[in-house]
């Protein structure tokens, strides 16, 4: 009916133009104005309809997503339990109504990238038997005023329509990277498009226009909660904030087992050891390790994925692919002494801690000393932090001891040591005692420098006392390019 009406109006307009042209009127300005109007309308329609694509559940719309179950998500037991508890308000509708509980309107999944926030939102649709409509925050942002707010309305109207079409009483609206859409208002002074879009989202969540047949739950995902507008986080909008943090050791082991399921693993593969060595890794990193290990096995025409493949994959994910850099002979010798210094101090502080040491370039690193993963640790004493500074500075000190001067290869080590020393200061573990965040920068710099200098002196004394071991280990590393932790310790003991 609408199409027919448009055609009638267009036909009348053309007829009038022909009539006025025959009467001698100049119709060129009208033609130009009409062309501009049609161009603007085409542009707005294209931006509104085509650019705003939705991903929907189980073939409800144009694009289906694979079925995801909470059992497919590893390492997030606490987050899954809290999220499922919130979703039970949808599943147990009768019990909720009997107790007079107000249904939740929004749940925010917050945490670092790659921890499974989007997967959890997808699993929620199957768990609650709801329609899932998904969109990204960037799809709402537009330079044209009012377009973002219109897209928000379209998103919610789509959720209502698809739920009714599928004969379902609930719909879940997933907005990934919601910090783009829900950033604090008043920061974009040039125009109010961002604020209008957020205001429309707040209105839709509040439910001024209530659909009695379909209840919509908004699930937002972000790794920057600090950027969100306070009005979005208040109860009645996002009622629950579920933390989806980096997994612990048991969580990492569970994730590795999920991704290794169905893959031919060799008998020497120990997933628990890999989980221990990957402290601070997200689920996405762990999936990448398993995938890269399989790629290495394929590259070497092996039918099983071996422990060696996993070691190579771990180093690739941590540092990057091997590079065809060809340092000069003097540079290779310097790198060998640098990495040997790191490894010797690591063994001094914690026997058996060196997993491997290499002078093969990966990513931005010309060489690398990898330590065995220990049990997850969240608290550190002053002695433990000072020991970590010693390991950081051992490479540069070894260079100075052997060559008489240091090189730029210690830049990242110095940055890491300075960060640890900063942590010592603001944890109240330095000679300054308890300090506040407004500590004068000059005092902070002097204290950090003093802490690092004291540790450098201890490192220098140890390496000078064990200079014979340093030379033997560095020469062996230069010959073989890579030493395992076992080989390194054997050579270290023989050279005693």
Summarize the structure in words:
By secondary structure, the protein is of the alpha/beta class. The protein folds into four domains: 2-50, no CATH class; 55-243, 3-Layer(aba) Sandwich (Rossmann fold); 249-319, Helicase, Ruva Protein, domain 3; 329-494, Up-down Bundle (Methane Monooxygenase Hydroxylase, Chain G, domain 1), CATH 1.20.58.760. The protein is built from 19 helices and ten strands. It is elongated and about 105 Å long. Mean pLDDT is 81; it is low at 46-65.
- The N- to C-terminal Cα distance equals 93 Å
CATH structural fold name of the largest domain: Rossmann fold
SSE string, helix = H, strand = E?
HHEEHHEHEHEHHEHEHHHHHEEHHHHEH
User: What is the typical, i.e. mean, pLDDT?
Assistant: 81
* Tally of strands: 10
Radius of gyration: 31 Å
In the sheet with the most strands, the strands line up as 2-1-4-5-6-3-7
Comma- or semicolon-separated keywords:
496 residues; alpha/beta; Rossmann fold; Helicase, Ruva Protein, domain 3; 4 domains; seven-stranded mixed beta sheet; three-stranded antiparallel beta sheet; 10 strands; 55% helix
Furnish the topology, listing elements before pairings.
Layout: H1 2-22, H2 28-50, E1 55-57, E2 64-65, H3 77-91, H4 93-98, E3 106-110, H5 117-128, E4 131-136, H6 147-165, E5 170-176, H7 178-181, H8 193-206, E6 215-222, H9 230-233, E7 240-243, H10 249-260, H11 271-277, H12 283-299, H13 307-319, H14 329-349, E8 354-358, E9 368-371, H15 382-403, H16 411-426, H17 441-465, H18 467-480, E10 482-484, H19 485-494
Parallel strand pairs: 1-2, 3-6, 3-7, 4-5, 5-6
Antiparallel strand pairs: 1-4, 8-9, 8-10
Helix pairs in contact: 3-5, 6-8, 10-11, 10-12, 12-13, 14-15, 14-18, 15-16, 15-17, 16-17
């Amino acid at each position: 009916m609408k199409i027919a009406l448009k055609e009638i109006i267009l036909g009348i307009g053309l007829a009038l133009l022909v009539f006025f042209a025959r009467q001698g009127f100049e119709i060129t300005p009208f033609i130009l104005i009409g062309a501009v109007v049609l161009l603007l309308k085409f542009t707005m329609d294209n931006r509104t309809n085509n650019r705003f694509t939705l991903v929907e559940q189980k073939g409800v719309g144009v694009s289906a997503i694979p079925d995801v179950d909470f059992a497919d998500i590893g390492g997030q037991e606490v987050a899954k339990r809290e999220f499922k508890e919130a979703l039970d308000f949808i599943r147990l509708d009768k019990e909720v109504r009997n107790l007079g509980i107000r249904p939740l309107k929004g749940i925010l999944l917050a945490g670092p990238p790659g921890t499974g926030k989007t997967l959890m939102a997808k699993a929620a649709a199957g768990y609650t038997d709801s329609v899932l409509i998904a969109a990204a925050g960037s799809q709402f942002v537009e330079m044209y005023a009012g377009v973002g707010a219109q897209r928000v309305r379209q998103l919610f109207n789509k959720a209502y329509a698809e739920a009714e079409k599928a004969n379902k009483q609930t719909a879940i609206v997933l907005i990934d990277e919601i910090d783009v859409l829900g950033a604090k208002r008043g920061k974009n002074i040039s125009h109010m498009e961002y604020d209008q879009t957020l205001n429309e989202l707040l209105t839709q969540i509040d439910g001024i226009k209530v659909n009695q047949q379909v209840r919509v739950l908004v699930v937002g995902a972000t790794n920057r909660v600090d950027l969100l507008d306070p009005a979005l986080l208040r109860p009645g909008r996002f009622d629950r904030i579920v933390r989806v943090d980096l997994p612990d050791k048991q969580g990492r082991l569970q994730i590795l087992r999920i991704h290794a399921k169905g893959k031919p693993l060799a008998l020497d593969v120990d997933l628990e050891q890999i989980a221990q060595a990957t402290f601070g890794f997200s689920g996405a990193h762990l999936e990448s390790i398993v995938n890269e290990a399989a790629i290495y096995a394929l590259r070497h025409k092996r039918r099983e994925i071996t422990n060696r493949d996993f070691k190579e994959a771990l180093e690739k994910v941590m540092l990057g692919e091997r590079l065809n850099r060809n340092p000069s002979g003097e540079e290779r010798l310097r790198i060998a002494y640098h990495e040997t210094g790191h490894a010797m101090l690591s063994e001094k502080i914690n026997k058996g801690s060196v997993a491997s040491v290499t002078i093969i370039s990966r990513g931005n690193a010309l060489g690398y000393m990898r330590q065995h993963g220990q049990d997850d640790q969240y608290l550190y004493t002053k002695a433990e932090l000072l020991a970590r500074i010693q390991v950081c500075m051992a490479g540069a000190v070894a260079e100075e001891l052997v060559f008489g001067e240091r090189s730029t290869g210690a830049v990242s080590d110095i940055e890491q040591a300075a960060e640890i020393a900063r942590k010592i200061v603001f944890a109240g573990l330095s000679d300054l005692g308890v300090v506040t965040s407004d500590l004068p920068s000059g005092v902070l710099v002097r204290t950090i420098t003093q802490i690092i200098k004291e540790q450098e002196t201890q490192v220098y004394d140890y390496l000078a006392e064990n200079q014979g071991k340093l030379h033997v280990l560095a020469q062996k590393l230069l010959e073989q390019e890579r030493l395992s932790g076992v080989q390194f310790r054997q050579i270290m003991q023989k050279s005693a």
